Amino acid sequence: MSAEPDGPEDRLRRFATIWSRAVFPVTSTSLTRPEFEEQLLPLARRLSEVVRARSFDADEARTVGAALIQAHCTDPEALSRTLDCVDAYLVLYCCADGPQDELRMRSSRLQHAMAAGFAQALRERTLAEQEAIAQAALRAQGVVAQALHASEARFRAVFEGAAIGIGIADLDGNILQVNTALLRMFGGSEQAMRGRNVMEWTHPEDAPHVWKLYDELVRGDREHYHVEKPFYRPDGTALWTNLTVSLLRDADGDPQYQLALMEDTTERRLLNLRLRYEATHDALTGLPNRTLFFERLEKALNAGEGQRFGLCYLDLDGFKTINDSLGHAAGDRLLVEVADRLQSCATAPGEMVARLGGDEFVALTTGPGTEQEVDELAERIMHALVTPVSIDGRDLLVRGSIGIVEGPAGERTPAEVLRSADITMYRAKSAGGNRSELADPEADARAITRHGLTTALPTALDRGEFFIEYQPLVHLGDGSVRGAEALVRWLHPQHGVLGPDRFIPLAEHTGLIVPLGRWVLEESVRQARDWRERYGDQAASGPLRINVNLSPCQLTHPGLVQDTVDILERVGIAPDSLCLEVTESALIGADDDLLKPLRRLHEMGVDIALDDFGTGYSNLANLRRLPVSILKLDRSFTQSMQRFPADPVDLKIVEGIVSLAHSLDLAVTVEGVETGAQAEQLRILGCDTAQGWYYARPGPPERLHDLALVDATG
Q: CA 472 to CA 704: how far, in whole Å?
């Protein structure tokens, strides 16, 4: 048993050996097989370098294909065997240590480029042969009588020995002579060929201008023409050729014969069709892929006036769960079944289904009446997904979210249409899934703006585009300013000042909320220190405290406690100057691990406020286990107090909450106070502090300075 190649050069030579053994039997060369192998070795090295290069060089691959012609590998079988060797062994022997899927994809592109280079070189050689034959034919007709025999002998040698098919016919189309190569191409006898007429060789796939060119030639208006033309063989199969037809004139210059030169391109055409199919169809499902879909969509969008299009963008709901629980093999089988069902939904003219990748599919319909057709197509798709898919004895429910885009051709680009469909599909998914939604330009614009804000967030913090406004917290008993809540704003270069509702959810989604929250905390604590240094002795109520909001993401971040300690120590301010606000919904059902950071901060002296209390449906009994010292009552409980008389039910609810909070030694802060009557009513009910537009809107820190001074001076 022979040893495996132990080095790159050994593996490369092994590939060259396999290649030479496959191609040598169909190559017209005087070299021995080992000598022919040495001729192929540098070509194998160039192929290896192309497939392993950082960027794919199609020109280099085409050059290798052309080099095969120079090595006398002119038989189409030589190309077929070469491509088979490259497909089977190039990556195996020359690129075994690389990413196989990517290398296989490159190998496929390399084969296509090699075939193109081979075809181009063979065509150039063929045209040269054709020119030589045509010239020889012309010379044979025009020589003097005493040289006729020698000229005919030379012509016969070229005629019979040529690798391409040659036929001669009179101007009526009756075939007079054919060479061996042409007989081999058609697979018939010479007698049968001579009995035919050129006009019998029509084919349904003939180009419209083929026979027009032929008529011009036999009339003498054209000397030659070159076309790609199919023929029927006697067995009914198709023979594709590069056909050149030339006019032969007599000594007086009058048209006399027509000379046809044919190159068999059937194998090359089949190869190109195969490569084209692989490049435009999904390997798993067999559906058209993204490339072919975009070609069809672009064609539909350029269809002209009066034409419309409809697009359904489908994403399966919960597909990741199936992949994670049952494995990718089961997921692939599910995708194949879904693809089959979708294919059965798009059978009308102008309809197609494609797979974009993953579990995303698209269905396209075109024509003048797509307003109704696209809705019907979406309904058929949703209905097709109702029946469970059986995989390994499990019945899997398949659901999908569909984004629908419909409109006239010529108004949008393919990228814009697909973006709108993608946005609409995610809107359907966000609404619960298993439904379809129609594209809405306003919703698209909001989604695009939201995406723009998301992508701009990471650099906005570095560019210093965020700033903080402060809203005072006022004691309801004596009206003194006790502190302020820090509220972050974004000064966006295009959209102006944005409130936290526009970007905090985006920051939480992207994870930027942690560094942003850390920055807000440090800036706010520094401001609290500044207030204490300037106005601490003048404020009648004592030092001012700063309230900073914590998002659920920050609450679960492992560095929360250490970051807070570091900031307080670095700024030089006591923990009791800080209050961290956590929404009630973030603490519903919180376990000890989640509460542990808050307990540590609370034990250090940092106040913890339960924000938006009353909106999270939490169990009031749980308040005893939460490390909070302040309840911030949601404004929904106190809105009715802006009117007189106040709703007695709301009064009772607030009175009960205040009583419960005080019994648990918790202070009560009320948000959204907008009138003096409301503030007075809340004071009577026993609330401790309040904030709202009645006292001040959020603003720069200097405004709080002024309020604090007024409080201190009376």
A: 7
